[in-house]
Structures are given as structure tokens and as C-alpha cells.
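C-alpha cells in:
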């Protein structure tokens, strides 16, 4: 397959790296230090099970070395969506699939508007990966790549793509109700990312403390209410199932290391995806008449960090 990774950071490098190792022709679109490292030293992946592998990769700051591709893995942060949409336009042809793995529920609208809904597959990654240093990506947390058609039907192309992922060593699942799956993750991720970024603590101690547990659950309930009001058919016990999954189905000790990507962003002084997580919930709630004080609290507390560590003019 001819594959373009738009945004060769943590997720893009992880998935693109496995696909390139399996023999697919992959172009990694990157910039800055990451681009230089990929070109000079190749891509090194540190898998969860230990060890590492390095592959030489094609990396560029434009799509022109590749032309029209079969698949675009759309992996930029949500605040970079518009620029990335413009950048990949020349790589999208009649049968190109654009699979977004971005968090949140906003970026599919931008992609649909740019390329038409037929081209766009919805996706969520439960894999957690991080750029450890330029060109080096660590896999931190297991999980499937879940994706599917937006129109709630199965398709041959999604089944073929799942086979491609699985053969490359990527655990993948197709869901016919991907929009619902994206909202289910949104319920979870607004609480996990919002609360771990705010408190700089992993999920374990947050759920063990009654007051912070209440805030955590309130965040999820508000997202659930916004989903219902938006016509998304989430199960009535989505919040309870999410909590039960975290507390009883994950291997013991995992919650004490579970931190959202926004935690890592704030800890490193990077920009936050806040507007597309808790901020999006607040704006949608306002529009739909759903009260969202818990998400509002997280949003207000983190907003000074939204462009990175605030600059202080100390005397
Ligand atoms: N990391 C994870 O484990 C998970 C992430 N996600 C979601 O996936 C998305 C991507 O996250 P993640 O991989 O962590 O993000 P990263 O910041 O690690 O990667 C994004 C990369 O895209 C690059 N980029 C952005 N715009 C351009 C451009 N115009 N040209 C070239 N390169 C560009 C960025 O460069 P630069 O650094 O210079 O900005 C960066 O290297 C987010 O929405 C995130 O919430 C979802 C599940 C898990
Ligand atoms: C699901 C989770 C926590 C896994 O990486 C995530 O999406 C994030 O960190 O943003």
C-alpha cells in the first residue's frame, strides 16, 4: 500500500513504523527536529514488550514525493488540523482513505468538509505512544486501533485495511458504529486527560479520593449528556461501564500509571488540545442547553496553559 503519515509524532510514527516494517511504502510528513532525525537516523520504535527496532524511512515536509496515496493516517494534534488538511490535499485521490486517529469529536467535521465523507474513516487509538527524543518513539500502553465507516455499515475496504494492520503487527478492530465509539472514548478521555493534566496525577489516586472521583465522574456524565443531546445513541450505562472497565477489567496497578496525553503535554510545557476536549464539551453544552460545570472548571483551570507554559514577568 502507498501510505502517508500526516504528522509523524508519537502515534503517526508508531503506526507508520509498523506498516513500513511490513513492507508498505510509507511517507512520514514531519517537521523540525523530528524531520531531521527521521532523515538522518531513521525511526526507532521501543515496543511495549521491550527491545527496539530501527528502520530507515522516507520523511518530508510535503506530500509531493509520494503523489496520490491509498491511505492517509491523519495524526496531527487537533489544533493543527486545518494546516494539515491543506498540506495533504494533493495526496487525496478518488479512492484514498483518510483515517483520523485524533482525539475529540471535532476534527472529522473539518476532514469531511475538505475531502467529502466518503473518503474519511473515523478512528480511535487506545495505543498510547510518546516521542522520547526526536526519531525515537516509545509504545507506553497497549490497545487496539479501532476504526470504521461513518455511515454505520461495514465495507470491504475497512476489512481489507484491518487485515493490513494485523499483518503488520497492529491490533485493529472495525466498528460499524464508529461515531458512537468515538463519543464513548470522548466520555473517557475528557475525564482522563482533563483530570490527569489538572492534578498531575495518574487515574488511580484520583479515583481513590472521593472528592476527585466525584469530579471525574461528573465530567463523564456531562459529556454523556452532551452526546445524548447531540443525537448520539450512547448506551444509558456508558459512564458506569467506563468506570467498571477501568476499575475491574484492567490489570492490577495499571491505573497508577494511567496518564492522558494532555498530562504529558502540560508537563513538558507543550500546547494543549483543551479546546477540542473539555472546551468542546463546554461550547457544545452551551449550544444544546446542557449544563457542564465540571468540564467548565477543568477548562478554566487549564486555559492559561493552552499555548504552553505561561510566560511570567517576575520582578
Ligand atoms: N500519543 C498518544 O498516545 C495518543 C494520541 N492521540 C491523539 O492523536 C493525535 C496525535 O497525537 P500525538 O501523536 O501524541 O501528537 P504528536 O505531537 O506527538 O505528533 C503530531 C506530529 O505532527 C506534526 N505536525 C503537525 N502539523 C504538521 C505540519 N503541518 N507539517 C508537518 N508536521 C506536522 C507535529 O510537529 P510539531 O511537534 O513540530 O508540532 C508532531 O510531530 C492527537 O489528537 C492525540 O490526542 C490519541 C490516542 C493516543
Ligand atoms: C486513551 C489514551 C489515554 C491512550 O493514549 C489517550 O487517548 C490519550 O492519552 O490521549
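Residues out:
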Amino acid at each position: 500500500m502507498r501510505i502517508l503519515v500526516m504528522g509523524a509524532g508519537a502515534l503517526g510514527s508508531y503506526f507508520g513504523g509498523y506498516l513500513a516494517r511490513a513492507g508498505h511504502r510509507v511517507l512520514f510528513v514531519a517537521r523540525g527536529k523530528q524531520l531531521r532525525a527521521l532523515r538522518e537516523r531513521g525511526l526507532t520504535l521501543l515496543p511495549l514488550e521491550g527491545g527496539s527496532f530501527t528502520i530507515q524511512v522516507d520523511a518530508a515536509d510535503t506530500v509531493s514525493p509520494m503523489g496520490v496515496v491509498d491511505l492517509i493516517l491523519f495524526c496531527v494534534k487537533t489544533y493543527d488540523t486545518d494546516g494539515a488538511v491543506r498540506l495533504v490535499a494533493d495526496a487525496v485521490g478518488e479512492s484514498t482513505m483518510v483515517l483520523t486517529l485524533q482525539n475529540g469529536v471535532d476534527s472529522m467535521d473539518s476532514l469531511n468538509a475538505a475531502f467529502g465523507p466518503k473518503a474519511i474513516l473515523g478512528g480511535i487509538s487506545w495505543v498510547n505512544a510518546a516521542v522520547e527524543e526526536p526519531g525515537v518513539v516509545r509504545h507506553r500502553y497497549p490497545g487496539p486501533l479501532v476504526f470504521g465507516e461513518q455511515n454505520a455499515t461495514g465495507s470491504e475496504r475497512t476489512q481489507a485495511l484491518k487485515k493490513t494492520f494485523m499483518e503488520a503487527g497492529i491490533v485493529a478492530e472495525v466498528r460499524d458504529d464508529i461515531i458512537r465509539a468515538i463519543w464513548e472514548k470522548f466520555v473517557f478521555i475528557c475525564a482522563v486527560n482533563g483530570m490527569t493534566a489538572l492534578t498531575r496525577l495518574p487515574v488511580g489516586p484520583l479515583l481513590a479520593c472521593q472528592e476527585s472521583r466525584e469530579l471525574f465522574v461528573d465530567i463523564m456524565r456531562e459529556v454523556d449528556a452532551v452526546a445524548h443531546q447531540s443525537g448520539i445513541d450512547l448506551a444509558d450505562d456508558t459512564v458506569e461501564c467506563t468506570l467498571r472497565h477501568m476499575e475491574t477489567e484492567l490489570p492490577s496497578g495499571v491505573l497508577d500509571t494511567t496518564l492522558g496525553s494532555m498530562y504529558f503535554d502540560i508537563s513538558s510545557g507543550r500546547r494543549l488540545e483543551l479546546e477540542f476536549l473539555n472546551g468542546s464539551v463546554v461550547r457544545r453544552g452551551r449550544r444544546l442547553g446542557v449544563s457542564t460545570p465540571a468540564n467548565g472548571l477543568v477548562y478554566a483551570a487549564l486555559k492559561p496553559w493552552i499555548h504552553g507554559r505561561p510566560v511570567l514577568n517576575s520582578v
